[in-house]
Automatic annotation (TrEMBL):
Stored SUPFAM superfamilies: FMN-linked oxidoreductases
Residue ranges of domain DUS-like FMN-binding in the record: 85-356
Gene3D superfamilies: Aldolase class I
Membership in a protein family: Belongs to the Dus family. Dus1 subfamily.
Pfam families per the UniProt record, alphabetical: Dus (PF01207)
Spans annotated as Disordered: 1-23, 37-58
InterPro entries xrefs: Aldolase_TIM (IPR013785), DUS-like_FMN-bd (IPR035587), tRNA_hU_synthase_CS (IPR018517)
Protein name listed in UniProt: tRNA-dihydrouridine(16/17) synthase [NAD(P)(+)]
Length: 416
């Protein structure tokens, strides 16, 4: 096996910062499926299937009606996924996506990739974007403020994904400094040019992930502009740019409903999806075509298979021990990381999120983890065993194990 990469080039100032103090080393040798260009010099595009005349060609020259039909044909070809892993920097990487897919996720976004760094730096490309054949349908998300650079980056990934997505929602200071994400909401002509450039030059459709404006009419006008510019799918995070803390501010599903009613392309709802009851209510209340979940999946990657943490069980007597817990999920995740290497900082972050409750009961185990400046799989597997030997049991629950939701969501069908 190749030696771990121990050095990476310094990151530009506007690069999203990593979540932990761990470095950018991959958790083991270079992952074969990360070096896409070397292994598939001319891979087929997923949507270049000539079986449908609606699919597989850039939107160039298509009138509005045809573009809408093409957007729906593509969405239907993908099986109209409803349960979707949201984009998360350093957190929606390949092994995590595969874990969520095993437990019911029907599609997933990559973390946001920086289009300029992606275009310029081979090491960034191979470390930050990895995929494999089970990792579909896939949205690859970029942040950008230059249409040509965005297009260059998008053309590298389009053979490996089903949508190229533009991040128009990042509210962080780093996005303000880099002039991307939600800060482009002040420059709608620039956003329009980003979408148009991709729609005219890619074989895969363009999607956008947006936040809402404080005024509903502004949000609607914005969404319609994106559709007219060639956006084929819109994910709406029902919070404004200033509503940064998702735990404190409830997402505005009414605004998502209004967007769904005002555009003709598929719309995904994002915000406040913590368990499957939320999924059903959100789809019903907004009329959206699917939902994205982020923070809750980090804690409970089996959410879309119907599992829920104790926090969301309440006094509901129909909930039962689901015979699965977060320690099981960590072990499954680690095995996927052994197979599909990612930087250790991502693994560290997931272990903390999934085992947060366990560490609250045994803080000394967390302290031991934090004291490791260099992680190994051996240490992490031992740590999980230690937690178990300490007698901790924090099950995930199923609301109604006889509903069939678990198996129907595909746990048994994943090959990853
Ligand atoms: C750790 C983390 C990283 C995130 N990174 C991204 C990102 O790369 N791109 C993006 O569009 N949104 C990103 N988000 C926002 C989520 O995709 C999502 O819009 C937000 O968390 C609201 O969904 P939730 O209520 O299910 O958490 C991130 C969120 C979290 C928690």
């Amino acid at each position: 096996m190749a030696a771990p990469i121990t050095q990476t080039p310094p990151l530009p100032a506007d690069h999203p910062k990593s979540l932990d103090d761990d470095d950018h080393r991959l958790c083991s040798g270079i992952n074969q499926c990360s070096l896409l260009e070397q292994h598939h010099p001319h891979p087929p595009s997923s949507s270049s299937d000539s079986s449908s005349s609606l699919l597989g060609s850039p939107s160039r020259g298509l009138n509005g009606e045809w573009r809408i039909e093409r957007a729906w044909a593509h969405w239907k070809k993908l099986g109209q996924p409803k349960l979707i892993v949201a984009p998360m920097v350093d957190n929606s990487e390949l092994p995590f996506r595969l874990l969520c897919r095993k437990y019911g996720a029907e599609a997933a976004y990559t973390p946001m990739l920086h289009s300029r760094i992606f275009s310029e730096t081979e090491k960034y490309r191979s470390q930050e974007f990895t995929t494999c054949k089970e990792d579909r349908p896939l949205f690859v998300q970029f942040c950008a403020n230059d249409p040509d650079i965005l297009c260059q980056a998008a053309q590298v990934v389009e053979p490996y994904c089903d949508y190229v997505d533009i991040n128009l929602g990042c509210p962080q200071r780093i996005a303000k400094r880099g002039n991307y994400g939600a800060f482009l909401m002040e420059n709608l002509p620039l956003i329009k040019s980003l979408v148009q450039k991709l729609a005219l030059n890619l074989n895969v459709p363009v999607s956008c992930k947006i936040r809402i404006f404080p005024k509903l009419q502004d949000t609607i006008t914005y969404a319609q502009m994106l559709e007219d510019a060639g956006c084929s799918l819109l994910a709406v995070h029902g919070r404004t740019r200033d509503e940064k803390d998702g735990r404190k501010v409830r997402a505005n599903w009414d605004a998502i409903k209004a967007v769904k009613g005002a555009v003709r392309i598929p719309v995904l709802a994002n915000g406040n999806i913590r368990h499957m009851d939320d999924v059903h209510s959100c789809l019903e209340e907004t009329g959206a075509d699917g939902v994205l979940s982020a923070e809750s999946l980090l804690e409970n990657p089996a959410l879309f298979a119907g599992f829920r943490t104790a926090e969301w069980v309440g006094s509901d007597e129909s909930s039962e021990d689901g015979k699965l817990d977060q320690a099981d999920l960590v072990v499954e995740y680690l095995k996927l990381c052994e197979r599909y290497p990612v930087p250790w900082r991502m693994i560290r972050s997931h272990v903390h999120k999934m085992l947060g409750e366990w560490f609250r009961i045994h803080p000394h185990v967390r302290e031991d983890l934090n004291a490791q400046s260099i992680l190994t799989f051996e240490f992490l597997y031992d740590m999980v065993n230690r937690l178990r030997e300490l007698g901790t049991t924090i099950p995930l629950y199923m609301k109604d194990t006889h509903s069939g939701g678990f198996l129907a969501n595909g746990v048994a069908t994943c090959t990853a």
